[in-house]
Amino acid sequence: MFNRICNINSNLQESIFLFGARQTGKSTFLRSKFPNNIYIDLLDTSLKSRFERRPALLYEMLHDKPQGTIIIIDEIPEVPQLLNEVHRLISEKDLVFVLCGSSARKLKRKGYNTLGGRAYPVYLMPFVSAELPEFDLDHALQSGLLPPHYLADDPTRRLSAYIDVYLKEEIKEEALVRNLSAFQRFLEVAAITDGEMVNYNNIAQDCGVSANTAAGYFDILEDTLVGFRLPAFSRTVKRRLTRAPKFYYFDVGIVNHLLHRKELVRGTTEYGHAFEHFVIQELRAWCIYSESGERLTYWRTHSGLEVDAVLGDARVAIEIKSAEEVQSRHLKGLRAFKDEYPQARTVIVSLDPINRNTDGIECVYVLDFLKMLWKGTL
């Protein structure tokens, strides 16, 4: 059993939606967090059918429970009609619900009751390094950090099934796309451009669709929690800044499989891309779990100077390099950032095992950086 960092109190006082992409471990997490509470699993076909036929059955089942009773409903998007009954039970009986699903898109798209602020969203991410007692960096970069994939000796078949069944079928169904081949091509193009600035016109041309359609495809990946756009840092002091976002899939293993990156080797471009993606993935999870309110962005000038990640309002700037020896040329973007925002803490994360300070820039070995991040000392 792994101790997940996701912050849900077992003595929950308010209802929540627990969202997370498929196979992030939501059901396992909830069963361990609430072992003695009422648990309704809507993946149980017979139970799902009964609630679909008669949603009011939920009210009859729970209306006599004591105030504050916690009820878990797993895969609530399977029977979204139940949300009206959940709303009634919260309002009339002061019951507390944990409503689990892979995204809110289906609920919003069809206009189902999203409880009008009576339940706040919480997100479960793939594993992060701090949750794994014997964390293996190279294995994480290759397999990704979805629990079934990271824990498998060879996750190839699992990744293939995940992409074929989930990304290519369920997301297509959610998207209501007419051109399925274009959407499948889009998934591959999105992987090719993973970690790069989004150019909707170029991606649309590669996929044979309009720029608006391509932008809509990115919306779908975000709404279903399969990807995210990293916004550009926007506070300008001297230099003109790029405004376009970057795109990342939510897990590096997905990108590897879509791009057929089977054996990542240190020192290669492919390894460098995976390394950067992984660190961004950890930073994003920290921002969500820490509830710090800090935004994660990246910084790039029109002249091409760039820093991979910025936390908050220029509080910390982070460059990510898979180099085993940090050299002066790797610090160019951070130096420019420091010139623009002198109060910022500047860090380069790499495979260089010698931690040191160079011209006010901290050079930190990646495993030490991860410990700093999750201990809250970054």
Structure in words:
The mean pLDDT is 90. 40% of the residues lie in helices and 17% in strands. With 378 residues, the chain is of the alpha/beta class. The strands form 3 sheets. A 6-stranded mixed β-sheet has the order 8-9-10-11-13-12, sandwiched between helices. The protein has helices at residues 26-33, 45-53, 57-62, 82-93, 105-109, 137-143, 147-150, 156-175, 180-192, 200-207, 211-223, 252-258, 269-290, 332-340, 366-375; strands at residues 15-19, 38-41, 70-74, 96-101, 119-123, 227-230, 246-249, 296-300, 306-311, 316-320, 345-350, 356-358, 361-365.
pLDDT < 50 runs, ≥5 residues: none
Gyration radius, rounded: 22 Å
Strand element count: 13
For the record, give the distance between the C-alpha atoms at the N and C termini, rounded to a whole number.
Answer: 28 Å
Please work out how many helical segments DSSP would assign.
15
Strand content: 15-25%
Order of helical and strand elements = EHEHHEHEHEHHHHHHEEHHEEEHEEEH
Query: What composes the largest sheet?
Result: 6 strands, mixed
Overall pLDDT score: 90
Helix content: 40-55%
Oligomer: single chain
